[in-house]
């Protein structure tokens, strides 16, 4: 975050009216609004910590208003301009004419495009109906309501929408009694709930702004979590202390049934010393709500109370339970409590229900990912050899790292013995990933073993494999066309996925004096590199046509002796095409340069060094399967 001190004309020094300013630039994508909200919250927190005079008037209402306004303006800029967004946030100290204020400026680089409101100009409401604004924003009407004043400034190549919010010390509960519930967190809950706002200001638009901000932040935090326990932990920390003094979250097992028992995934309490006693109290009584209660709040006995069959545990209050659902299925339940009160306002319970609905969506998404990842791992294990053969007189080292996207990759490998003292090795890469790639891998690897063991030479193996792939692709396309025709649809020539395969296929025959005779065929695959003991590196094969493209393709072999100390490096394009911005790892023969520095290393040492070089090439982890094989003659 960049922060500047901007001087007003006629002042000297920061103490004479300097204006704290925070600036940032955001990418024009869907993550920009949440980043903008966090940026504004961080700036407010820092200015409060500096003890600035104007910061004394900061309130939670002001923070909510600023978060909602910046979210609306940045969303408009991203959706309607599509450019990077410049955000400026400054604090203006009070003058003789005006009170202290926060000023937000959001700029985009399409000044010819007007920022639109999400509501029709006549105020009739959108698809959600009058008075029921969509959750994704209320457009400039909301900005106009919350801001003291706002406007649009046009400059050459730049359009800026700004809003000014006065700083005050507004108290949302001037008449509230100093009850324990309000003092220990209920105030935060009521700030988010519409009831208190409506009673004080009689303005429905003002009432919902805190709730929208809370739900938007909750959605950002929960979205994309791939572990249901992390979702439960985040949900507990979002609920406590904002909307509850304590909460407990149960999750149903994946194989839910009448005999299945919900698992207590998370217990959270505003007083951390009471978390474990509360967990002990709740573990013996798993919570499962009947389907008939729906997704709304259900009143529950206070844990440990006489009504619940035990002794009171501290100050009692109100306990509510909600079913966690997704796609019509029950995934668990949330139990939460507020101490020292007798009733939770309806608007607050509705807000919690909306929040629990998001928890259900996040848990459902995490479980779907886990199922997909589990299936992929099982399928991947079935498509790859359980053990690769050891070649006499040749040391080997294999690195295989599937991309971490939860789907089956297209890279595969194999080393297996054949008749006549031959040893075959394979490194392949199927176009694409997922089920289609798995089908090709499941066909290619056993076909290769069968053809090689039937005694076909290396070039003949690839010719026959190419024809088998084309025949299978044709049969699959004809079957798809028949299915489409039977359903009354129209078959598209592009409806099927071509089954292209890049393949490096080699044979090794050990030589009596040491080393081995190596024969290679590279079909559309990154070329293997031969490393000599003196550090020289050269390609060990010639590039040839990808498999699965032409029916009459012919392949030629290249043979050479792998002398003792020589090393052969074979990789997939996950190595050569590893990206760092616009650059790839193999640009300028980068792989050969990295290999030349491996002279004198063992096969395992070479594989390890190349793997680390590929990972270190970019800050982000690889987004493609990574496979490499090193063969070193002894």
Description of the structure:
This protein has helices spanning 32-49, 60-80, 139-146, 180-192, 194-201, 204-207, 209-222, 228-239, 275-283, 346-383, 435-453, 458-486, 573-576, 590-596, 603-616; strands at 2-6, 19-26, 85-92, 101-108, 149-155, 158-166, 246-251, 263-269, 298-300, 317-326, 329-339, 394-401, 411-418, 422-430, 501-510, 516-523, 529-531, 537-539, 543-544, 558-562, 567-571, 579-580, 583-584, 626-633. The strands form 5 sheets. A 6-stranded antiparallel β-sheet has the order 1-2-3-4-6-5, with helices on one face. Strands 13, 14, 15, 16, 19 and 20 form a 6-stranded mixed β-sheet that branches. The radius of gyration is 33 Å and the shape is elongated. It has 634 residues and is α+β, with helices and mostly antiparallel strands. Strand 22 and strand 23 form a beta hairpin. Mean pLDDT is 78; it is low at 1-17, 113-138, 169-208, 308-312 and 491-496. The protein starts with a strand and ends with a strand. The chain is built from 15 helices and 24 strands.
Topology:
Blueprint: E1 2-6, E2 19-26, H1 32-49, H2 60-80, E3 85-92, E4 101-108, H3 139-146, E5 149-155, E6 158-166, H4 180-192, H5 194-201, H6 204-207, H7 209-222, H8 228-239, E7 246-251, E8 263-269, H9 275-283, E9 298-300, E10 317-326, E11 329-339, H10 346-383, E12 394-401, E13 411-418, E14 422-430, H11 435-453, H12 458-486, E15 501-510, E16 516-523, E17 529-531, E18 537-539, E19 543-544, E20 558-562, E21 567-571, H13 573-576, E22 579-580, E23 583-584, H14 590-596, H15 603-616, E24 626-633
Parallel strand pairs: 16-19
Antiparallel strand pairs: 1-2, 2-3, 3-4, 4-6, 5-6, 7-8, 7-11, 9-10, 10-11, 12-24, 13-14, 14-15, 15-16, 16-20, 17-18, 17-21, 21-24, 22-23
């Amino acid at each position: 975050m960049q922060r500047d001190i901007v001087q007003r004309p006629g002042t000297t020094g920061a103490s004479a009216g300097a204006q704290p300013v925070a600036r940032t630039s955001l990418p024009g994508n869907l993550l920009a609004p949440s980043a903008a909200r966090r940026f504004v919250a961080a700036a407010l927190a820092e200015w409060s910590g500096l003890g600035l005079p104007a910061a004394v008037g900061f309130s939670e209402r002001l923070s909510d208003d600023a978060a909602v306004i910046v979210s609306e303006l940045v969303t408009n800029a991203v959706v309607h301009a599509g450019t990077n967004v410049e955000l400026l946030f400054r604090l203006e100290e009070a003058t003789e004419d005006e009170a202290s204020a926060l000023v937000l400026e959001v700029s985009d680089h399409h000044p010819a495009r007007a920022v639109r409101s999400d509501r029709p100009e006549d105020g009739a409401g959108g698809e959600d109906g009058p008075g029921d604004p969509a959750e994704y924003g209320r457009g400039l009407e909301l900005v106009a309501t919350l801001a003291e004043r706002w406007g649009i400034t046009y400059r050459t190549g730049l359009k800026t929408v700004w809003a000014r919010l006065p700083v005050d010390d507004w108290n949302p509960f001037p008449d509230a009694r100093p009850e324990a519930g309000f003092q220990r967190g209920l105030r935060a809950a009521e700030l988010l709930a519409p009831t208190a706002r409506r009673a004080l200001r009689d303005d429905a638009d003002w009432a919902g702004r805190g709730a929208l901000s809370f739900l938007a932040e909750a959605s950002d935090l929960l979205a994309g979590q791939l572990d249901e326990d992390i979702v439960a932990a985040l949900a507990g920390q979002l609920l406590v202390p904002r909307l509850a003094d304590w909460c407990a979250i149960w999750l149903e097992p994946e194989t839910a049934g009448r005999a299945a028992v919900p698992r207590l995934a998370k217990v959270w309490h505003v007083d951390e010393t009471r978390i474990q006693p509360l967990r002990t109290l709740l573990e013996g009584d798993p919570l499962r709500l009947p389907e008939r209660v729906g997704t709304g709040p259900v009143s529950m006995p206070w844990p440990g109370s006489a009504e619940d069959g035990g002794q009171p545990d501290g100050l009692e209050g109100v306990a509510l339970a909600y079913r966690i659902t997704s796609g019509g299925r029950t995934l668990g339940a949330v139990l939460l409590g507020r101490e020292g009160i007798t009733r939770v306002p309806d608007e607050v319970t509705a807000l919690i229900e909306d929040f629990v609905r998001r928890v259900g969506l996040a848990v459902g998404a995490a479980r779907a990912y886990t199922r997909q990842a589990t299936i992929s791992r099982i399928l991947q294990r079935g498509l790859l050899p359980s053990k690769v053969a050891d070649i006499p007189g040749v040391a080997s080292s294999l690195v295989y790292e599937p991309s971490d996207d939860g789907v089956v990759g297209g890279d595969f490998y194999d080393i297996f013995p054949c008749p006549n003292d031959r040893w075959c090795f394979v490194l392949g890469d199927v176009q694409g990933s997922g089920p289609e790639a798995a089908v090709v891998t499941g066909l290619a690897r056993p076909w290769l073993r069968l053809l090689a063991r039937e005694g076909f030479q290396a070039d003949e193996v690839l010719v026959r494999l190419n024809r088998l792939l084309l025949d299978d692709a044709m049969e699959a396309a004809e079957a798809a066309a028949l299915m489409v025709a039977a359903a009354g649809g129209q078959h598209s020539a592009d409806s099927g996925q071509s089954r292209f395969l890049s393949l490096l296929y080699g044979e090794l025959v050990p030589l009596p004096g040491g080393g081995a005779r190596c024969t290679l065929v590279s079909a559309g695959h990154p070329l293997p590199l031969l490393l000599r003991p003196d550090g020289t590196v050269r390609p060990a094969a010639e590039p040839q046509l990808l498999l699965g493209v032409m029916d009459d393709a012919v392949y030629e072999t290249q043979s050479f002796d792998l002398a003792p100390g020589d090393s052969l490096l074979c990789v997939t394009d996950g190595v050569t095409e590893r990206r760092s911005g616009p650059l790839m790892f193999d640009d300028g023969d980068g792989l050969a340069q990295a290999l030349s520095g491996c002279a004198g290393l063992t096969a395992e040492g070479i594989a390890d060094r190349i793997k680390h070089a590929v990972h270190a090439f970019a800050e982000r982890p690889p987004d493609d399967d990574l496979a490499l094989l090193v063969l070193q003659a002894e």
